[in-house]
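Example 3.2
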Amino acid sequence: MAHFMVRAALAAAVFSGAYQVAPAAADPIADFYKTKRMTVLISSRAGSGYDVYARLLANNLGNFIPGKPRIIPRNMPGAGGMRLLNHAYNKGKRDGTLLFTLHYNLPMFQAMGGRGVKYDASKIIGLGRLLASNAVTGVWSASKSNVKNIGDAFKRQAVIGSTGATSNSTVYPHVLNNMLGAKFKVVPGYAGASSVFLAMERGEIDGFGAYSYLTLKSIKPDYLNKKLFNPIVQWGPKRELEWSHVPTAIDLAKSKIDRAAMVIASTGPEIGFSYFMPPAVPKARVAALRKAFNAMVKDQAFLDMVKRRKLALRPADSTFVEKLVANVMGAKPPVIDRLRQLMLAKGQGARCQDYTDKKFCRKKRKKKKK
């Protein structure tokens, strides 16, 4: 009789609504992002390696963030990536809706006390990295300079195209000139890497200052497969397997201080295509975005799509990329002083428009009237 009464009471409670399943707990991260539109700022023009991989991030990361926000890529080239970083650091939203690429020489440029720096790279928040590989200084195989290796670069001049004054494409050839006595003539001012490559293919210049090995493999596969250019020097912690015969800048350093300087200069390619947030983003949102990034780079559907597009991946997490930036920012003063000496552009007044159609060169920004 007692059992019957208990069962009857439970049944009455269910039908009356008194015995109900508790509602699911609210997810503040999903609630925030489901009404937001995110932005990925890209520090170079469309079609570059920075652009290709940032758009890969924008098109896929939202699927792994609670609330599944739409992510819009936006190009903001200029000043070797400094225009973007200054903007993101000082004016970018700090609510977890802004991500940005980091031109990888900018931490070093800050550590050296470079002009125009309005950011602190030690305070930006890491998300993760999609790709890193050695950068290479290269010369077109059909170039009239006949520079095919670093030994040739000591004997003959090769005209090297580059982009912004602070970009690795400008900095690296100057380092080789000042540290080793190479004879590269650097022509800065090209609108982007695609303009440099076009000028090189047309015979207007001999080579390029720096470009990522794996990005070349993805975007310009014929350059490697058909040996259309000669890799002269690699920039990275160790040699790429395919270029085991090509020295790194660290290999070429002749003194202890130069070697330490080249380790710092070669950290940039390890930063590679990494993504960051401005300071002061709420910790819970930072954690959610990092978790989403880590899930994305392990997701089989994402990996299959990347493979179909013939893109390479060498992912790393936020801890790793933040440590790379910290290593650069923590370089000892004598090493930074040596880098300053090595990066000086001595006696060169070359201009992009002297070598190619000015439409391929950067347009000068008009100064605002006070």
